[in-house]
From TrEMBL:
<protein>
    <submittedName>
        <fullName>Tetratricopeptide repeat protein</fullName>
    </submittedName>
</protein>
<dbReference type="InterPro" id="IPR011990">
    <property type="entry name" value="TPR-like_helical_dom_sf"/>
</dbReference>
<dbReference type="Pfam" id="PF14559">
    <property type="entry name" value="TPR_19"/>
</dbReference>
Length: 124
């Protein structure tokens, strides 16, 4: 199997709106090259986009453990936890991402979770 060609095919599937197809192509590549962060990140995003949040979380936690300064991995991990309704767990990752890099998506996600948590605390 030509891993580079499979990665290119997976990227095409992902960008064409088929995250499940992309994930199927990426899984054996990650198995063959577990330290390849680009492949692992795309697989995590494919899982996120196909609502396989537990799988996305596992790969994103591996990325963050490998490189704690990876702002994008923190952001997507925070978004994954947010999407799973785990707002308190999402908040530190979203804060880190927003502190490491000024990006409107990062700020929006952080504000959304902070607002949700503020509303949840107000109702208690």
């Amino acid at each position: 199997m030509d891993l580079l060609e499979e990665y290119r095919r997976a990227t095409f599937f992902f960008e064409s709106g088929d995250p499940l197809g992309a994930a199927k192509l990426l899984e054996p590549i990650v198995e063959a090259e577990p330290r390849n962060t680009a492949v692992r990140q795309l697989l995590a995003r494919a899982y996120f986009n196909s609502a396989q949040l537990g799988r996305a979380e596992a790969h994103l936690r591996a990325l963050v453990a490998h490189d704690p300064s990876d702002h994008y991995a923190h952001h997507v991990l925070g978004r994954t936890l947010e999407r799973d309704g785990r707002f308190r767990e999402a908040l530190p990752h979203l804060r880190l991402a927003a502190a490491m890099k000024h990006h409107s998506d990062y700020q929006d996600a952080l504000h959304r979770v902070e607002q949700w948590l503020g509303k949840a605390e107000d109702s208690q």
